[in-house]
Amino acid sequence: MKKIIFLFLLLLTSCMTDYDKAPALRDYSKGPFLELPVSRILVVSKAKTDNTPPHAEHLMPMSVERFIKSWAAVHLHPTYKTQGKAQFIINEASMIQEDAPENSFFVYDNYKYQLKYQIAVVMYDETGHKGTSFEVEGFLSRTLPKKASQEQRDNMFTHMLNDLEEQLNREIKLQIQENHLDQ
């Protein structure tokens, strides 16, 4: 009898969607840390926020822009190899909600959420002359039923922010290596 109950519980938990399980926003203060050969790093946002549809930043537990600012403040470290500075510029940080196209196999309606970001990093030497620069951009997309609960929606947003952290770590590290800034 215990085996049957155990198998039933195992089956039940395996049928839950990822968004039914409450994730925690990762503690990204433990790294990885990305070093830039400058003495100062400025985080600047030029992203325009809009709380009217189709924008959905206001539905998230933390806006994309605020998340990227926090990520940059924690992950980017100056090495003090030069007296120059680096600007980390957030040009776009948005979440769009739109109706998902009807699919003949499903009878319920869905929302499609698209998280988009575009970031530029510009390095300046000691005299203020522009040096190395690079851009990183990307998007994440998820679909959720319109009838999903607020908890499921928050869980999905948290999954997306965790995935965004992984993308930023990977892409910024790659750009630092490609531009030989890690030497």
What does this structure look like?
With 183 residues, the chain is α/β, with parallel strands linked by helices. The chain is built from three helices and six strands, in the order αββαββββα. β5 (110-124) and β6 (130-145) form a beta hairpin.
Strand tally: 6
State the helicity in percent bands.
25-40%
- Helical region count? 3
Q: SSE order in H/E notation?
A: HEEHEEEEH
Strand portion: 25-35%
Distance from first to last alpha carbon? 63 Å
Q: SS-based structural class? A: alpha/beta
User: What composes the largest sheet?
Assistant: 4 strands, mixed
Categorize the overall geometry.
elongated
Low-confidence stretches: 4-17
**What is the strand arrangement across the widest sheet?**
2-4-5-6
- Give the rounded overall mean pLDDT: 84
